[in-house]
């Protein structure tokens, strides 16, 4: 059966029985995908709603994007008798903003708008093409440019950020574009169609998005970067070197430590830039990405307390009663910095919007805090920066860097007192889910269930006895698998030290397989023994015996007439037998004092099935196509 999977990092939508191994839009690993909810209310079912609103409560949300729609969605699930209005300056339907570069690069409009997790969400009344120009906090009304007034009981400002524009001489020429909205992307796509040479100004992560769009559209690109490296400030010098090599390999003309002085135009259209190094570079389209700033005008005029963003408490309440703020415009608690900060990302805005929506509907929330997380494709490479990825002050920090510009990979992990506080990965993001998990604040999430529980619950009927019975079992095994994942990596290192390279490969494959099952609740374990002991432990399963456990569950499924569960337990048993067989062979070899003879190992990135030999055209367990198999 085909499901829709949404990348929580960029909103990319994928149809299939399982998520893709890596998001084609932002490069995030498959763990960033969530299945589109079949029953939105189920996730919020056990929220503490002691502050539940009276019937007919009026919720007004300004902004129809990541934060705004997540809030509307949560409110819709929690308050069936409220009235929700979403007001948006943009005239189009909801879309994931991070997909805008893909639109320029050739993504169809149909696929672009299909990437909408709220497609079935018919609760909010949408007022599109309406610009809010003022808030009257004492009368509890907002007024729009069109003259329309809307009254609210609770108001959310989810108005995002806008690009910083610099008035260089010559900036009035046509063909110079800033990039925030669908309308901007349409305009840039039109300009790109006619253009032969693009200039991108700004070496940060958004500048790299511009480069990606123009390069994919087949235009020669010059990239003008004020700093001495690409990717600053989140990416450091060595990471910047990897990006530089990759950009140059793509044929991008990279100009570091060079700035715009002025633009030249012909017949009103931009035709060249003059730079701080005295150069004249021809270009017929210019993309400027020199930063964004939160849209604070409405908040300031309404008397809300602001700093870099609108200041909010852990329930997203601003300094004015009844008004909330979330997303790129909000300055909310950051768990790593332990202070309020503006954190701009799609997923962060969505999460904040959800918390704000729950709070607006009267739920008891305590936001655990943002963790900066950015994923994107840069110079053709997946890149992520997590937490404090490039600290200015490095005293007392341990910084572990592995950079290989030739192989185009870079991995930097930042630790304080042994705890990971940030990372930057380029080229290979396999570690990213674990690092994110390690960075996560530990306080309770707003959802009634953890992600792991929600995932296990999704494929089953919500109210079936079988589901209830298996859920607690699955929870336990998830915890086991997630621990096993880290443990197996340690086992792999140990096996490498012992010269058992094939055993090490087996453990890496096993670790990856466990990650597929459960990316949550990682724990590092001590007391690791030799490879043979490790293999024995791995064979024992994580606290259960496969030949006892699965048959028992199959019997229960049969007794209860749960055919789907029965099939899935049979499949799990078959998968476990294959894993077990591999471990047995490895253990026998190691016991005999040699490395195991194991051929090519493949792991299905959709279900974790591990096998030896050539991958089949479809996974025997979950039917994912061959391309989902990763080799170890
Ligand atoms: C080109 C591009 C690529 C990006 N790529 C990534 C990426 O790969 N990964 C990532 O995590 N993030 C990425 N981002 C950032 C991400 O899109 C933002 O962090 C996110 O959209 C913020 O969501 P938000 O809901 O807070 O605000 P926004 O998405 O900015 O939405 C705010 C909405 O409010 C509306 N609005 C504002 N003022 C008013 C008003 N007065 N009246 C009515 N409506 C109003 C705006 O029109 C807008 O629709 C990218 C951004 C851009 C522009």
Describe it.
- This protein has 632 residues and is of the alpha/beta class.
- The chain folds into three domains: 3-162 and 293-360, FAD/NAD(P)-binding domain (3-Layer(bba) Sandwich); 165-290 and 372-432, FAD/NAD(P)-binding domain, CATH 3.50.50; 452-631, Ferritin, CATH 1.20.1260.10.
- 32% of the residues lie in helices and 23% in strands.
- The longest helix has 33 residues, at 465-497.
- The radius of gyration is 26 Å and the shape is globular.
- The chain starts with a strand and ends with a strand.
- Flavin-adenine dinucleotide (FAD) is lined by residues 9-10, 26, 62-68, 87-90, 97-98, 100-101, 131-132, 158-161, 179-180, 206, 209, 295, 298, 327-328, 344-347, 349, 374, 376.
What is the arithmetic mean of pLDDT?
Answer: 84
Q: Which fold name is given in CATH as the topology of the largest domain?
A: FAD/NAD(P)-binding domain
Structural class: alpha/beta
Number of domains: 3
* Beta-strand content estimate: 15-25%
Q: Which architecture of the largest domain would the CATH scheme give at its second level?
A: 3-Layer(bba) Sandwich
Number of strands: 32
CATH superfamily of the largest domain: FAD/NAD(P)-binding domain
Unreliably modeled segments: 443-482, 518-529
Strand order within the widest beta sheet: 6-5-4-10-22
């Amino acid at each position: 059966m085909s499901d829709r999977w949404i990348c929580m990092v960029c909103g990319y939508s994928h149809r299939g029985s399982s998520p893709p191994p890596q998001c084609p839009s932002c490069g995030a690993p498959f763990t960033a995908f969530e299945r589109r909810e079949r029953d939105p209310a189920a996730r919020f079912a056990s929220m503490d709603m002691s502050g539940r609103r009276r019937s007919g409560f009026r919720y007004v949300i300004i902004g129809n994007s990541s934060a705004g729609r997540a809030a509307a969605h949560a409110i819709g699930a929690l308050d069936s008798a409220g009235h929700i209005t979403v007001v948006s300056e943009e005239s189009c339907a909801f879309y994931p903003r991070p997909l805008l570069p893909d639109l320029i690069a050739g993504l169809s409009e149909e696929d672009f708008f299909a990437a909408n997790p709220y497609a079935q969400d018919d609760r909010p009344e949408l007022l599109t093409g309406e610009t809010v120009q003022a808030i009257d906090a004492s009368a509890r009304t907002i007024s729009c440019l069109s003259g329309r007034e809307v009254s609210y009981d609770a108001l959310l400002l989810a108005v995002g950020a806008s690009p910083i524009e610099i008035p260089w001489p010559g900036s009035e020429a046509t063909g110079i574009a800033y990039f925030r909205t669908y309308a901007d992307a349409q305009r840039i796509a039109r300009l790109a169609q006619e253009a032969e040479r693009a200039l991108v100004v700004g070496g940060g992560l958004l500048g790299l998005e511009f480069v990606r769009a123009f390069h994919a559209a087949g235009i020669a690109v010059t990239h003008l970067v004020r700093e001495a490296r690409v990717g600053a400030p989140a990416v450091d010098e060595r990471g910047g070197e990897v990006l530089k090599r990759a950009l140059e390999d793509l044929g991008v003309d990279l100009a570091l430590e060079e700035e715009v002085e002025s633009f030249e135009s012909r017949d009103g259209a931009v035709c060249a830039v003059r730079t701080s190094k005295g150069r004249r570079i021809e270009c017929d389209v210019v993309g400027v990405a020199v930063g964004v700033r939160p849209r604070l005008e409405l908040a300031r005029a309404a008397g809300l307390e602001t700093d870099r963003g609108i200041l909010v408490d852990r329930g997203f309440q601003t300094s004015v009663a009844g008004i909330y703020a979330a997303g790129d415009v909000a300055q909310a608690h950051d768990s790593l910095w332990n202070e309020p900060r503006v954190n701009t990302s799609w997923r962060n805005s969505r999460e904040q919007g959800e918390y704000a929506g729950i709070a607006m509907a009267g739920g008891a929330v305590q936001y655990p805090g943002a963790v900066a997380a950015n994923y994107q494709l840069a110079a053709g490479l997946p890149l992520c920066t997590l937490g404090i990825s490039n600290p200015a002050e490095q005293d007392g920090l341990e910084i572990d860097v592995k950079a290989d510009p030739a192989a185009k990979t870079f991995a930097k992990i930042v630790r304080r007192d042994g705890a990971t506080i940030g990372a930057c990965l380029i080229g290979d993001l396999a570690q990213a889910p674990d690092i994110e998990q390690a960075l996560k604040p530990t306080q309770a999430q707003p959802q009634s269930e953890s992600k792991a529980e929600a995932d296990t619950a999704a494929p089953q009927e919500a109210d079936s006895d079988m589901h209830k019975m298996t859920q607690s079992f699955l929870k336990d095994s998830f915890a086991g698998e997630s621990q096993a994942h880290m443990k197996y990596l340690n086992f792999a290192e140990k096996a490498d030290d012992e010269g058992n390279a094939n055993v090490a490969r087996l453990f890496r494959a096993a670790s990856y397989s466990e990650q597929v099952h459960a990316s949550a609740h990682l724990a590092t374990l001590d007391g690791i023994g030799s490879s043979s002991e490790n293999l024995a432990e791995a064979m024992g399963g994580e606290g259960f015996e496969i030949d006892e456990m699965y048959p028992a569950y199959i019997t229960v499924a049969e007794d209860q007439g749960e055919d789907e569960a029965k099939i899935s337990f049979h499949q799990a048993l078959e998968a476990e037998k294959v894993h077990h067989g591999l471990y047995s062979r490895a253990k026998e070899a190691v016991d005999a004092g040699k490395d195991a003879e194991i051929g090519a190992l493949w792991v299905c990135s959709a279900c974790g099935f591990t096998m030896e030999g050539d991958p089949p055209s479809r996974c025997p367990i979950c039917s994912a196509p061959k391309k989902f198999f990763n080799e170890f």
